[in-house]
Design goal:
Structural class: mainly alpha
Order of helices and strands: HHHHHHHHHHH
Number of helices: 11
Largest sheet: none
C-alpha cells in the first residue's frame, strides 16, 4: 500500500482556480483576446502573402519567394522592438495605457493594409503592426502574471499563451473566406480596437505595480528606477536571466 506524500505545512491544497476572483478571470479573458488578435495579425499575412505579392508586384517583378522573406524579417524586428519598448514603458507608466496603445497600433495599421499598392507600403505597415503585436504580448503577459496569485500564475500564463491557437484558426478561416479578396482579411484586424473600450472600463493597474510606482516616486535611490534596461542587464540575478532569455 502506497503512503500518501506528506503535505508541506501551510501549503494550499485547493485547485489552482479556487478562489480566483471575477476580476482576475476578466483580466485573463482580455489578455487572451489581445493575444488571439496578435496571432491573427501575424498569421493572416502568412496565409495571404501569395495573393498580396502577386497583386502589388507590377508584372511579376517581385517573385513571392524573394519578397516575402524580408517581410518576415521586418515583422520579427518590429515585434522585438515593440516588446522591448512596451515592456520598459509599461514599467514606467503602467500596464493599462500601454495595453491600450499597443492594441490601437496593431489594429490601425492592420486596417490600413487594405489600401497598400506597393511592397514598401506593405513592409512599413507590417513593421508597425509588429510593434503593436510584440508590445501587446509583453504587457499582457506581465499583467496576467501580476494580477494572479502565485499558486495560479503558471496555470493562468499557460492559458494565456495557449489561446494563441484561436488566432491562428481565425486567420485561417478568414483567409479561406475572403479568397482572392485578401484586403478584407486585414480589415478584420480593426476589430480588436474594440477591446480598448473594455480595457479602459474594466482593467486597473495591478497592486504590485502601484506599490513599485509609489516607491519609485518617493525614492531618490537608483534601485527604484522602473523600466531601466541598464538595471536589468547589470543587476544580478535579473541580468543572467535576461541574457539567457
Amino acid at each position: 500500500m502506497n503512503n500518501p506524500e506528506p503535505q508541506t505545512p501551510g501549503a494550499d491544497s485547493r485547485p489552482w482556480y479556487a478562489g480566483i476572483t471575477r476580476y482576475e478571470w476578466l483580466v485573463l479573458i482580455i489578455a487572451c483576446a489581445g493575444w488571439v488578435f496578435d496571432q491573427y495579425e501575424s498569421q493572416v499575412f502568412v496565409l495571404t502573402q501569395d495573393r498580396i505579392l502577386h497583386e502589388i508586384s507590377p508584372a511579376g517583378s517581385l517573385p513571392s519567394n524573394g519578397a516575402s522573406d524580408p517581410l518576415y524579417a521586418i515583422f520579427l524586428l518590429g515585434g522585438t522592438l515593440g516588446g522591448l519598448a512596451a515592456g520598459s514603458l509599461a514599467d514606467r507608466y503602467g500596464r493599462r495605457p500601454l495595453l491600450i496603445l499597443t492594441i490601437v497600433l496593431y489594429s490601425l495599421f492592420s486596417g490600413l493594409t487594405y489600401f497598400v499598392d506597393s511592397w514598401w507600403q506593405l513592409a512599413a505597415l507590417r513593421f508597425l503592426v509588429a510593434i503593436g503585436v510584440g508590445g501587446e504580448w509583453a504587457v499582457a503577459a506581465s499583467l496576467v502574471a501580476e494580477v494572479f496569485p502565485a499558486r495560479a500564475r503558471a496555470y493562468a500564463s499557460g492559458i494565456f499563451h495557449a489561446s494563441s491557437i484561436i488566432g491562428i484558426w481565425m486567420a485561417t478561416v478568414a483567409a479561406i473566406a475572403v479568397g482572392e479578396h485578401w484586403r478584407y482579411a486585414f480589415l478584420v484586424g480593426i476589430v480588436p480596437s474594440l477591446l480598448v473600450v473594455w480595457v479602459r472600463a474594466r482593467v486597473r493597474e495591478p497592486d504590485k505595480w502601484q506599490v513599485m510606482a509609489a516607491d519609485a516616486t518617493h525614492s531618490t535611490s537608483e534601485q527604484h528606477r522602473m523600466g531601466s534596461f541598464r538595471d536589468l542587464l547589470t543587476t544580478y540575478p535579473w541580468n543572467k536571466r535576461a541574457l539567457l532569455g
